[in-house]
Amino acid sequence: MARKIGSRYTAHQILGRGSAGTVWLGEGPEGPVAIKLLREDLASDQELVGRFVQERTALLSLDHARVVGVHDLVVDGNDLALVMDLVRGTDLRTRLERERRLAPEAAVAVVADVAEGLAAAHAAQIVHRDVKPENILLDMQGPLGPGGAHPALLTDFGVAKLIDTPRRTRATKIIGTPDYLAPEIIEGLPPRAAVDIYALATVLYELLAGFTPFGGGHPGAILRRHVTETVVPLPGIPDELWQLLIQCLAKAPASRLRASEMAARLRELLPMLAGMAPLDVDEPEQQAPDQPEPAPAEPTAPAAPRSGAVPLVPGAASADAANRDTHTSMRVPAPDELAGGARGTARAPRATGAPRPGSARNRHASRRRRVALGVAGVVLAAAAGGGIWAATSSGSDGSPPTDNTNSAPAAP
Ligand SMILES: Nc1ncnc2c1ncn2[C@@H]1O[C@H](COP(=O)(O)OP(=O)(O)OP(=O)(O)O)[C@@H](O)[C@H]1O
Prior knowledge:
binds adenosine-5'-triphosphate; Kinase-like_dom_sf; membrane; non-specific serine/threonine protein kinase; 32% helix; ATP-binding
């Protein structure tokens, strides 16, 4: 059913849902658009609306081929909406779930595109803060690039910052997606451009390996690994690519490449990667569910419902089951909680077929890991007497999260 958004736009059909709102296929004076309608509880927050208007100029001015352009910000009664370029295709998470791993050439081409978009944003002093496969859209109508990759565009600029208002998230809380969080954020430093490089390098690793370098288990374990552990080389990865990857995953933000350098170095590697098959690696052993992480010293968020994504900010209405299970809001861990502890958590990837003790091969690793994460959160909630670090899962009841192949369909 069509719905008016402000005086200039009509929303026709839902393309997908995220934790901050719903994305609609819509129509504006200049043709088709995508309209992200923020959740009602966010839209009714006057402070957030104020920031929304304040950020207007910065968001509207970001104009780059690798960034999903924002055309308009609409504040109309209870509606708060971002009007964006419509990308006819799908998001990178959906592609990754379908293919499990990408060939190195395609993975590098996608990430080089995104790095170019980030370079433009960083030049305009805009930090994305939530780079992850869900926020990378693949334009199926664009020309095929190296490795058969469709052009990739980064979306959701500014949304994390808009929502991260002081009243919603006190200084001691982290907002983000645990697998992609740079160590300095976990240590409580303000997010600068280098956090996007770390997150994008994590995405590159994930595209190559089929799993993120520090993911798996409870959010607290993931955060600790970001701060204390080093990535283990992927079997079969060309050394030049590995060197670039570890530089961008450096714990010290100043040691990471800048976005423009990352894009240029990745493009230089493309000829060498042409025709290379996806890496043959298996996900490392998952943490056994009967070994819960130590509980945080004090619970900071209400217990999460067993199904549906946990709200982006504590106290917000739970998102429905169709939502992505992507965000976590949690307090900054104390130094001793980050220090590690008796149980080592290194996640060494193995060449496929190499023996390992225990469980069967992990297929659909990222979804399974997200499910396990939600379950761990619920278990911990019980252990901590009802409070948890808000963990995320859209399938913690064991049901698979709804597939989101729902960007505007590509024209035949
Ligand atoms: N500009 C766009 N054009 C076409 N489809 C889009 C556009 N922006 C988002 N979508 C689709 O809408 C869906 C929801 O997007 P949204 O940005 O709200 O959530 P998300 O990024 O998946 O999750 P979260 O907001 O929790 O990080 C996604 O599946 C995405 O593919």
